[in-house]
Specification:
This protein is α+β, with helices and mostly antiparallel strands. 20% of the residues lie in helices and 38% in strands. It has a single domain, classed as Lipocalin (Beta Barrel), CATH 2.40.128.280. The protein is globular, with a radius of gyration of 17 Å.
Amino acid sequence: MNPKQALIQAIAPTRRGLNLSPEQRQAIFSAAAFLEDRNPTPAPNTTPELLEGNWVLLFTTSQDLLGFDRLPGVRLGPIYQCIRIAETRIYNIAELYSLPLLEGLVAVRATFCPETERRLKVTFDRFLIGSQRLLQYRTVDTLIGQLSQPTKLRGIDNTITRTNQQGTLETTYLDEELRIGRGNNNNLFVLQKVRELSF
């Protein structure tokens, strides 16, 4: 088994980090560190062709993201982080599922600028929560097209103006299919490149 497969296998039973025992946490962090030490892209911010695209979250320690799954009657669907280099924007999109016809989503838009060859400074500037049906949601790409425009969307669509809505994202491992990152409070993120989305 190669190191990437070992990490993905360690992640698989944890529901992206929701069900995480101390032993599983140690195994995942060890497998991630093993890959980080062998990072084939030591300066990821200089390789936009690798960073660019839609990434689906496999694992995180961020309770802000995982908390949606703990809401009564809500199940957290796929979570995407979509990087658009030319726009210097990042879009975080989480699908939410509940009763039939009540599917929702949460999206946050941010701008970024490089701080180092590995770290991005991220500033959040727009927040959206709404119904997938009312937003006519089909793919993350169509939603990003809507969010890139100033037009208000159906749902709770707010501009984020508070100066404390900033963070950092450091890419510690990057290849053509897998990305490992460290965010605020040393939260760990493991993401896989989405080659094609079909609905």
